[in-house]
Give the backbone structure.
Amino acid sequence: MHIFIDESGSFVYTPEKSAWNSICALVIPERFLEEAECTLIDFKKENGCPPSDELKLGEVVDEMSYFRLLIRLAQTSCTLYGAVTDAHTNTPEALADHKASTVKGLLANVEKMHYEEGRQSVRNAADQVKKLSDQLHIQLICQISLMQLVVWQSVLYYAQHEPETLSSFVWRVDGKALEKKTEYESAFEKLLPAYLQTMSISDPIITVTDFDYSHMADFIYKEGEGPDYLKESYGINVDSTGALNIGKIFRDDIKFVNSKGNFGVQLADLLSAGLRRCLRKGFKDNLRAAAFLGRLMVQRPKQEFPVLLLTLGNEVAIDTYTATLVRMMRKQQRPAV
């Protein structure tokens, strides 16, 4: 499967309420890549944009044209995963506390590790988190949470509908620098596998016996192949046989790319911008926008909303109309099983 990721918004604290920022992943199975690209090209032509140029949502005059793009994407096997945060809730004080807690969590067991190389690696990761700006810290947490959602939900969904696409995971993330990785991108690549491998232990992926996971053989630990870092570093015995090799899923093929040359990232940008605009009530018909976006989303367990609502500060109830929009997305979402 091909996963394209882009964000919308600055993720900077503001006293303005309902200041939503979003980061989205668009998953396209291999056999639908050409159809998805043609959909984008037609959308550009419809809006007077050459196929070789990048079209931003702010340049689209007729929102019905955007809705038609969503409808066409929903007719393929593409799926959308989103994480959103209200920048108003992420105060500088809340960010400072969260960053300190993150660093503390990374260093909690460092002295129990058997090898200095491992201890230094963890300390370096903690230092990278410390150096990130508040804006990049919240974006990092949102992106890691999003990518967990992508793997946890897409594996369940596509094992049922497009099992062949689970044979590989191709990640393309919008890059901000053309020549070398930014400090954020470097921190993200180093921290992501460790974060998600830890998440997979406390929150394992849901699997269904009758679904086809055979194409994922390269990403499943066989007996004796599981990671030994918990035993080697901490003296903890964990049997990983049959578990997903989360690190391999992300390390196999992940690149930060220039969106101008990648149609999938351009689509992810349009979807992320659309989700943000919808929650900010920026469409003429926000309820319809929520419905069309929801048709691309996949059901989460326990009747949770299909889009992740994240805050690093105090939990604040969303306003009634925003709740109506998110419920519409849930109403229109695709069933996971």
Observations:
- The chain has a mean pLDDT of 87.
- The chain has eleven helices and six strands.
- Residues 2-332 form one domain.
